[in-house]
Amino acid sequence: MNQDAFDRALVELSARLPAYFRRRVSDAAVVEDLTQETLLKAFRGRGALREAARIEAWVYGIAHHTLVDHYRHRPPSTTLCHHLPHEHAADRSDVQAVLIASARCYLETLPSAYRDPVYLAEYEGFAHSEVADRLGLSLAATKSRVRRGKIMVRELMEAHCEFEYDVLGNIIGYQVRCDPGRSESCK
Questions:
Q1: What gap in Å lies between CA 125 and CA 56, rounded to an integer?
Q2: CB under 8 Å to 114, separation ≥6 — which residues?
Q3: What is the tens place of the pLDDT at every residue in 28-68?
Q4: Total structural domains in the chain?
């Protein structure tokens, strides 16, 4: 690609780059800085462009990496933590205790082929190989039944409760779902 064609393509893309950054950054000054930085990198690196027909993808790749660098070098925001309510260990343990008790109740409703392996592995703390020996099953069958039993318990719990998760995927709250077949109101 000759220099004039490259310059024309870069000028055309320079009109569209701010929209790319505005969808990802709210500060107009930062959008302008990122656009200029991307154009500068593209201009300086024009020798690295291998296929002239792919200049748009090449420039947007530079824009993506410029944006990643922007977020990587930005200091972490601390304002969010001041506005969040503090979670107490007692609250987490209360939720955890209720969930464990509920899971055990739902486990009791499963057929023994699934209930027993899950109970021995999760509540009694036996290794899968020990569970297999106790129940006279192969190790593969034991692992499969433990997994399927846990899935069954989870599905039963999700059918009766709506869970709230933290950013790490831990359950931090729950709400009992109303059973449409019951005549009294849910509380």
A1: 57
A2: 145, 148, 149, 152
A3: 999 999 999 999 999 999 888 888 888 999 999 999 999 98
A4: 2
